[in-house]
Amino acid sequence: MEILSKRIRHLSESATLEMARKSRELKARGVDVINLSIGEPDFNTPDCIKTAAIDAIHSNHTHYTPVAGTAELREAIAKKLKTENGLNYSAQQIVVSNGAKQSIANAILCLVDPGDEVIVPSPYWVSYPEMVKLAEGNMIDIRATIDQDFKITPQQLEEAITPKTKVFLFSSPCNPTGSVYSHEELKALAAVLEKHPRIFIISDEIYEYINYKGKHESIATFENIRDRVILVNGVSKGYAMTGWRIGYMASTLEIAKACDKLQGQVTSGPSSISQWASLKAIESMNCVSEDVTEMVNAFSERRKMVIEKLNKMPGIKSNQPEGAFYIYPNISHYFGKTNGSMRIENDTDFCVYMLEKAHIAIVPGAAFGNPNCVRISYATSKNILVEALDRMENALEELH
Ligand code: PMP
Ligand code: GLU
Asked: Which residue, 169, 177, 191, 350, has fewest beta-carbon neighbours within 10 Å?
């Protein structure tokens, strides 16, 4: 008899976390590895947020909170959605979780029955397929090519819909491509979804603030589908708070209550201290906005530099990311090439070659839906990025 359940045996390890782990292990062995695998801001959490957490401890905000989050934080999130995004949600429609990751998992588990189809534009974030698998749903991916800036068309969405479709799940700004859907593009997708009232939309907006294009656009803006949108966001990326583990979702009361019930049996509410820190972040744009702007400007400069350098490397093709802090170049030109005993046949070989030869950690593209690509995170300092890309260029030159 197997010890571990089928559920866990069939689940893949997160490729982003796996590469981050491998690079940490090599580093511990004294290898000078540059880690461009994991996506997290290299900036520190702004001071006033840290102070709010320390104050929370001294004020004994150290007990269980309500499962869906403190009343104060849920109110602040509802207010943020109103003032920044023009969306009307009551505090009761908000559920705070241990990161946006848990919010997405909650929503999938509350909506998807075995055999239900979940449509996901590809490239997609690495954890979506595994979360759908946990819910025993079937993921249907719609392939978006680099020539369409990795964004799906309304026709593609329409064609993927079947009587079994239950959820449409996507991120904009997108991890791994950095693609950002415009207001018009979202409106066109909403028009398709309007015709299919059984379909729910999970809109992952965790990169809201990391947007080089301008104002953030949410698919929840469209009244015709608004009641079927589960909006997911959090503090990890925008406020450099990845380790605090606070994300949230906003939806109809029915779905919010279901997620509250699920979370109540699995994790309870997230850390009380992190919730008070997140309240400060969300409520006090005035004390953190400078830090956020500084961070986003730095990402923007790095993005420009990374695109320029990658464009100069023979055979590498990339799009122009408009948000997040990743680039997802096509590296298939190098398939079939060798350097001594090292041969590159696929995206994983390419990443292993880069790790062993150039000591840089990047993630194979197949984990995000396209095995001709790799994902590079540029959420690290400019000097380190220059060094990493120089190393990559040298390693590529040695491939024949
Ligand atoms: N969605 C996307 C697209 C992400 O890149 C991440 C990053 N981990 C998450 C969700 C989860 O974020 P969190 O740290 O809030 O769980
Ligand atoms: N979202 C980040 C990434 O894609 C963090 C790692 C993860 O949670 O998988 O690298």
From this structure: 191
